[in-house]
Amino acid sequence: MDWEKKIDYSLVICTFNPDKRILQRCLEAVWQLDTTGISTEVILVDNNSDLPLHQQSYIKIFEEKIPGMHILLVPEQGVNYARMAAIEKAAGNYIVYFDYDNEPESDYLQELKKLNEQFPAVAAWGPGKVTVDFIDGVDNAIRHFASMAFQQREEQTVRTARENSWQSCYPFGTGLCTTASLLKEFVQLARQGRFTASGRKGNKLSSGEDTQMVLHCISKGYAAGVSPALKLTHIIPQNRANSQYLQRLLYGTFICYETCLLQVFPEQKKTLEQKIMPRWKFSRKSLKKFIRARWSKDPHKMFDLVEFIATNAGTYAALNKPVPLPVNQIVRILKVE
């Protein structure tokens, strides 16, 4: 590849032991992207898969089909390490993250180009239309909740904000497009230990690095937002479309937020200190919710419990305070860490 050539968009796809059905759909969609007037590269990150991607025949086919596609091997396990390596390698003015279970619409890059030209003060964009495809089905009792957990969105208008706390219009990691120079600065700070969100690694489902990337853009004076013109499908297999996985996903998402926020905006510490729940109250409410959830046949009671514990335990963690013992015991019983 000619690294001297100007690149508009670097498309990054991180994988670890990917489901062939899903990665094939993702790569097929990337191949179908309309790149008229747009220069691109595609960095397919192999985060140390048991069967290396470059040895798989269907990957070789896509390497030949997709212009500018190359495989980047990152041996250090964890999606954050994979992403940081890709950011450092990326040559584009913008970096677009497609998780390997994302299927973008063919006009995704064209719509991004329009948005970046029309809104130069917005440094992070995400899709306003996300459809969740449960390819192996899902229990109707949890379908709506699961769809929301997997980032289904139905925005009707462009929405942006520039607040130093998470806003409903801020983009998630799915289909996230960010100004490359800001991400490269983010990686430098992460390498120096300023940002510590590790991302998903093995069975741990923490996903704070997405949050910190967006908040870092905000800290630099830019806005972030979503647009209904950006559309993609989020492909979810059976091993993630179940209550136990959703509980772990909830825990991993909420446990890290306050730490992510505080590392980007240290001035938020006083606010956190004022909102932290007293230990006795945290323990009592957790036990009450736990008993109700255990006796209930409604899976949403358990989801509510996990979100409550993770949100408040996340505040304790951000302030380096020990979580009450009864709460830790509940977390161990639930097996959500």
TrEMBL record:
<feature type="domain" description="Glycosyltransferase 2-like">
    <location>
        <begin position="10"/>
        <end position="129"/>
    </location>
</feature>
<dbReference type="Pfam" id="PF00535">
    <property type="entry name" value="Glycos_transf_2"/>
</dbReference>
<keyword id="KW-0808">Transferase</keyword>
<protein>
    <submittedName>
        <fullName>Glycosyl transferase family 2</fullName>
    </submittedName>
</protein>
<dbReference type="InterPro" id="IPR001173">
    <property type="entry name" value="Glyco_trans_2-like"/>
</dbReference>
<dbReference type="InterPro" id="IPR029044">
    <property type="entry name" value="Nucleotide-diphossugar_trans"/>
</dbReference>
<dbReference type="GO" id="GO:0016758">
    <property type="term" value="F:hexosyltransferase activity"/>
</dbReference>
